[in-house]
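Run folding on both entries below.
>entry_1
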Amino acid sequence: MRLDELLRLTPDSWALLPLWLARAFVFAFGLLWGSFLNVVIYRLPRDMSVVRPGSHCPGCGKPIAGYDNIPVLTYVILRGRSRCCGTKISPRYPLVELMGGMLSLAVFEVLVLSLPGATPAHRALAIYGADFTLCLGLVAAAFIDAEFMILPDSITIGGAVLGVATASLRDLGMKDALIGATVGFVGLWFPFTFLYKGLLGRTGMGLGDAKLIGLAGAWFGWPGAVVALFAGAFQGTIATGIAYVAGWEPSLPSGVREDIAQLEADAAAGDEEAKKALAEDPLTEEEDAFILRFFRRLFGIPEPEPELDLEGPPTEEEHAEMTKPPRARIPFGPFLILAILELLFAGDWLKSRIGPFLWPVL
């Protein structure tokens, strides 16, 4: 069969193929991209190339052979350790690979197989490619934000551009996608930033979050941006409330600790910019959690205790409090990303549940 004949196939013609075979293929395809996501998550926030060099052992740096780079299976066979030196491998790696496979299968099941029977194969493939690319970018952004408390522009802005470029695949229209991106980025960022400042005395919303909401608007229109904002905030507030009741205090993410250690080393070497950054809060530029703090205030969930204001030498208890590791801020990005994925797979249901509470905004 020639390529042009293959591209003219419709979903009705796919019934000639075993559905289990198609599902197995898209799942395996997703596993492979999940493996690549691990490279992106590790290297992108460290300004490293995601292409070169190839994968290597995190313990001894030895290149990883192809037969030791099979998604999920290698981790199970080697029992979570490197073959070359026995270094323990983080379970995050097979988790991300499985997420890639599951999201690939979900896009196929929910967004491709539900297409009308007369949909040309090339359009179905384009829908799968665009939606799965969005999923991959969001997973990478969630893990990077959780570890480094940053949202890379290459994912947020790149995802918004992809959303505008593929708007016709969702029957949205490029104009509506552009309006949605603008409303999400500017129309929601400015009001919430100044509302937060009026209530708490400081600006709060990071540009990374605003760009992510703009991405939601580019994919689902401005109502989708509003729903994503409130759904993400609601879920984040519930999670932080549960953490508070359980008495759990998150530790400072490893990526942030790396950045602080590098700043300290640069400051010791005489770097004035590093000294200035350390004199301030190294996390002040990362205000991803502003909506979570806003909703905690709204629902009466206590804030972390303020810093001690001591007069005279500190007591033993005060010294212990002063030397405790800094309290970590819970980033808003992963909760917002969860809401965007929910919009992708269950947008109509989500809007029907949240829309009445936002009326007449939507």
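>entry_2
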Amino acid sequence: MKRFRNSRNGSICTKYFLTLTSFDFYMRIALINSEYPSPTHSGHGGIATYTYLAANTLASLGHTVYILVREGTSPDPISDSVHIYNYGFSPAPGLHRITDKFRSGKIVWERGNSRNIRNTLLSIHKRFGLDIAEFPDYNGLSYQCSGSLPFPVVVNFHTPSEIVDRLNNLTLTKERSRWHNFEREAIRRADGYRCPSIALRDLVTRDFSIRTDSIEIIRNPVSTDLFDRINKSHKNDRIDLLFAGRLEFRKGALILLRSLKKILQLNEHINVTFAGETELGDAYSYRQAIERTLSEAERKRVWFLGPLPSKKLAALYCRSSGFLFPSLFENSPYSLFEAISAQLPVIASSTGGVSEIIRHNETGLLFSPESIDELLGCIKKFIENRQFCEEMAQRAYQEIKTEFSPEKIAAESISFYQSLIDKFRDGRKKSR
């Protein structure tokens, strides 16, 4: 039995959890994000995929979901219970505009966006009532909201900019340091936290001085539906290895630069395809460096396709032979989930949240990102033991179907939200 406290009026109702995915009460939930994909699955990133799955699954269970996305985004909700609102910049009131002149332009901009989000949430709450609002950990979008709303604010850790910058080995400038502090302050103002991996939670507790027991581990939801509809057509006379994602340092670009020629030399039938950004900034520099290491014949076996819409990317997964994932650190990467959903054998670095998803020699092959020899050994094992690797891919697929199903994760989310609502209301009572 569960007591549900309505955050709109403080009334208490006795409710029951019937099953893991069935509730007899319904929440009104706000999810804030700067991007939200359409049901047509046009190109988008992992955080948008999370928002899409979370919103529509919660709606399918009877909850009402409000999505706040940045102006200029035109998503098409799949459910009538998912309502889209746009947020933009609201200038600071009165004398605060003067102090804003001494702040970084980016910080002023995101504080203005956060101010507009707060006002939009208050408007929604006044008209319909809201029980809880969930924010991402980046861009400081929750900065103006925590402590000023009549319901709790949750921060979901995807990977804060401070950690991303460090993983990308970027030089820390004064301006970037100010940005990190702004984002950090927005995070620390929240009423509660959730995170999809133990690895990122441990980094956050160490670097942000947030207690471990205050961060709830709730995995990212994964749907295999798109991939289940596609025929798996691996060619027997080719070994097609796929890398999906932006070609950058933290994604293992340097590892690929140092190893790609050796990978191609393992077997003449190996081809490597890069699907993701390779034309801008550091990604282009890494692409050029990789191409310079290859002979003319080897270049004909390496393909750079650039970013692809989700449906085309899913088809590429389903006709590849194996998935290369050499990241230096990952939280809960959707590119890995997509490979598993396509029942693709995985060769991945044993770092961060990856090792919470893939178990070496059980659901995939893992290597240390510091060892090119281990990477080559895994690829060689994959080539020589294709049936064994395909059986591991099947096990990985079955595991995410059960352990990461959107309905299971939605049920865990509602239980977590409920605990925060109860705590929030109790705290407000004690402060009176």
